[in-house]
Design a protein that fits this description.
468 residues; alpha+beta; Four Helix Bundle (Hemerythrin (Met), subunit A); paralog of FGE (formylglycine-generating enzyme); 4-stranded mixed sheet; 14 strands; binds fe (ii) ion
Amino acid sequence: MPTSPSTIRCKRGAGLGSVVVPGRGETELFTLSQSLRDEGTGTRLPSEHWLERYHQVRNQTMDLVATLTPEDQMVQSMPDASPTKWHLAHTTWFFETFVLAPHVTGYLPYDERYGFLFNSYYKRLGPHPSRTTRGTFSRPTLDEVWSYRTHVDNIIRDLLDQGASPEVFRLLELGLNHEQQHQELIITDIKHAFWVNPVRPSYQPGQSGTPVDVEPASMPLLAWFCFDGGLHHIGHDGSGFAFDNELPRHTVFIEPFCIASRLVTNQEYLAFIADGGYRRPELWLSDAWDHVCRNGWAAPLYWEQAGYGWTQFTCQGTVPLRPAEPVCHISFYEADAFARWAGMRLPTEFEWEIAASSLKNTGAAGLNLLESRTYHPRAGSRQTGLQQVFGDAWEWTSSPYTAYPGYRPPAGAEGEYNGKFMCNQMVLRGGSCATPRSHIRKSYRNFFPPHARWQFSGVRLAHDGTVE
Ligand SMILES: [Fe+2]
């Protein structure tokens, strides 16, 4: 049985950063985030499993930035977004701070300054720069950040080679899920940076044959799925990894409701715009209407009117707006106003989870997640089943991001991960085309302020009662 903390000789040298370990995520959706014990045998999973998983996630990050220049990776296009280089360094800092520093005897920081530079918001770890200044960090250079990643990867490998404690495995799992969150942010942030750039670069230059280029022959059908009222269990069910905000699992009382079989399409959203949706204050919450007026909103983010119709900016550049695709890059405010215009409402996060739990087949086949490399939501099919639940676009719910009954944040700085943000944000569910496959599940709670729209965020409608 290994002991903790472990003693590792810290040295720089040939790294594993470029070693490609075959990923297992292509066919598994909900099972890659393993618990600390194998659920079938009860035996502790070997270090090889964790090393493989570690390199799969870390290599996936580097794969995402492979087409970006050092200049691209410096840009911070708005305060909410971060430079790619910062994401690469911050995710490494997370492993160094939460795994290596407390669990490797005599561990010396790679660079004393990085503890300040790449701390995002963990007040209990000390001061950090204002997030609005991240685009000014021309030093360390991108090469130096790569060296930092390689250094930490090497020590993690050594730690696992020597055998590590269950607590190390737990923190490693947290760090990997943290890095996966930043993988999605790398995509959404560089998309915004390229949108702000007047020459409008493409994240995927020369890509073709993806759903962006393919308009389905007909619009996806809309059906309604209705659920009885009563008591329902909500929250993580205990198998596999979950963030603290998905717990405790608890019981809620739900009135009967119906939820749409698919996401709202661009064509449906165009009808809202054509009906004066952005000019009718009666459709908007007060704070939302102030936002519309103050910012001159008249369409979703990345939409523009050209001589021949609407276009949208995508990770493949500017393309004609595809009517059958899900509307995306809308705020909670816009999702809520659209639902009111349509005579419907947004689902609560509990209703969404109940509907997602009803899916018989939650396999990854056909889902449009990060590994699909579309980086764009895909039109639904003409099948009448519940679809687009996982992937494509995050779905705004009417639920404020608050603690579940009995929630307690973890002790120490780790407790700052989720709990302190439970104010002034709304819950989104289901993942997007930029969410890694092994990262999403039915109990997953994403959260953003109601005005945010640079994430891949869309809307699914709901209504009270049952279908006549
Ligand atoms: Fe982070």
